[in-house]
């Protein structure tokens, strides 16, 4: 049956949120691909050139995306750094090949290709052998399965992590410092918490690169608006770890269904030697296990050494490029092969003359 795509400018998104969320809820627990995340994201980081696209078959919505022009005759899913996956959702079982074959010619102007970024194999099957599609590895991401009691989970962690947590807690107690986890969930708590979070990021390397959440910048605007919406819906948590009255580490978390996503982590660099973020995650994960409401904690970022202390699980996210015609796919591969050959030939000649 024919797939028909319709496109509207980004400013129309508020009126499309109900349709978007109805589809998103059929796909899985992806809180950052709901409208309460995407709307403030578009308002803060959108350029106004984005389009909202819906695919229908027999009047049923089967896929949706937020798309933006990207270079000559190219489009891409909306992908600011604050969004863990590309703004693309489709019902399970829907063919990515069929969806993109219908979408690319429907895009404004002369459209030759579409980049669909940061896809998760849990929710989108990676294409294999489709003539008009090319997939590319992105990153490995990690998660924690919340099963059984925290004590069982903790005993499965490495000896170094368990020893370090015990050592740091003992040291804090000996110094008379009370370590305490607060879990903030009220919308009224968000503004102050984001300001605290910004102070923590400003103490580290992000302040030097200009990527820290800091007073008055766009990141503060977005995270404040988004977290207020999630907290109002009962699905936002801000983990705040304190030494006495001083905040030393924080996480911004959102949830959907039985999945909780840790969006951002920050800690006070002045307390780095005491591993405040590690102590926070120990106590926060303990609280999650005890509550027995969440079954999965997702990191949705490149697997880092500290992630591997908390889990051995990971999976590979990927990008997809959809070409209007399969000949463009073959041409791109031919050009890439020629470029690679041009680089390799001088190297081979140099080695033969050595």
Model description:
This protein has 354 residues and is α+β, with helices and mostly antiparallel strands. It has 11 helices and 13 strands. It has helices at 13-27, 35-45, 96-103, 150-155, 159-174, 187-202, 205-209, 218-232, 276-291, 305-310, 326-353, and strands at residues 4-9, 51-57, 60-69, 74-77, 88-90, 113-119, 133-145, 179-184, 236-243, 246-256, 259-267, 296-298, 314-323. Strands 1, 2, 3, 4, 5, 6, 7, 8, 9, 10, 11, 12 and 13 form a 13-stranded mixed sheet that branches. Strand 9 and strand 10 form a beta hairpin. Helix 6 (187-202) runs antiparallel to helix 8. It is elongated.
Strand and helix map with partners:
Layout: E1 4-9, H1 13-27, H2 35-45, E2 51-57, E3 60-69, E4 74-77, E5 88-90, H3 96-103, E6 113-119, E7 133-145, H4 150-155, H5 159-174, E8 179-184, H6 187-202, H7 205-209, H8 218-232, E9 236-243, E10 246-256, E11 259-267, H9 276-291, E12 296-298, H10 305-310, E13 314-323, H11 326-353
Parallel strand pairs: 4-6, 11-12
Antiparallel strand pairs: 1-2, 2-3, 3-4, 3-5, 6-13, 7-12, 7-13, 8-9, 9-10, 10-11
């Amino acid at each position: 049956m024919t797939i028909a795509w319709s496109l509207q400018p980004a400013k129309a998104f508020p009126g499309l949120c109900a349709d978007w969320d109805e589809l998103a809820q059929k796909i899985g627990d992806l809180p950052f691909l709901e409208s309460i995340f995407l709307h403030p994201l578009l308002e803060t980081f959108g350029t106004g050139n984005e389009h909202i696209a819906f695919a229908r078959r027999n009047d049923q919505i089967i896929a949706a995306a937020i798309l933006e022009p990207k270079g000559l005759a190219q489009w891409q899913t909306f992908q600011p750094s604050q969004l863990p996956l590309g703004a693309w959702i489709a019902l399970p079982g829907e063919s990515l090949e069929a969806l993109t074959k219908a979408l690319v010619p429907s895009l404004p102007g002369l459209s030759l290709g579409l980049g669909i970024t940061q896809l998760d194999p849990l929710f989108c099957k990676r294409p294999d052998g489709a003539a008009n599609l090319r997939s590319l590895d992105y990153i490995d991401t990690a998660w924690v399965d919340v099963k059984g009691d925290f004590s069982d989970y903790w005993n499965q962690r490495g000896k170094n992590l368990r020893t370090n947590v015990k050592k740091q807690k003992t040291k804090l107690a000996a110094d008379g410092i009370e370590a305490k986890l607060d879990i903030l969930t009220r919308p009224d708590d968000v503004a102050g918490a984001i300001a605290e979070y910004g102070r923590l990021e400003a103490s580290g390397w992000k302040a030097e690169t200009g990527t820290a959440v800091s007073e008055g910048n766009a990141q503060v605007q977005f995270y404040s608006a988004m977290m207020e919406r999630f907290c109002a819906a009962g699905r936002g948590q801000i983990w705040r770890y304190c030494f006495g009255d001083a905040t030393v580490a924080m996480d911004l978390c959102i949830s959907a269904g039985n999945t909780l996503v840790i969006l951002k982590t920050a800690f006070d660099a002045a307390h780095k030697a005491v591993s405040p973020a590690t102590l926070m995650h120990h106590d926060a994960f303990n609280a999650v296990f005890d509550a027995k409401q969440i079954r999965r904690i997702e990191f949705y970022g490149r697997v880092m050494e500290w992630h591997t202390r908390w889990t051995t699980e990971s999976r590979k996210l990927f990008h997809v490029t959809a070409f209007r015609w399969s000949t463009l796919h073959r041409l791109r591969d031919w050009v890439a092969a020629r470029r690679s050959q041009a680089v390799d030939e001088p190297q081979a000649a140099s080695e033969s003359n050595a």
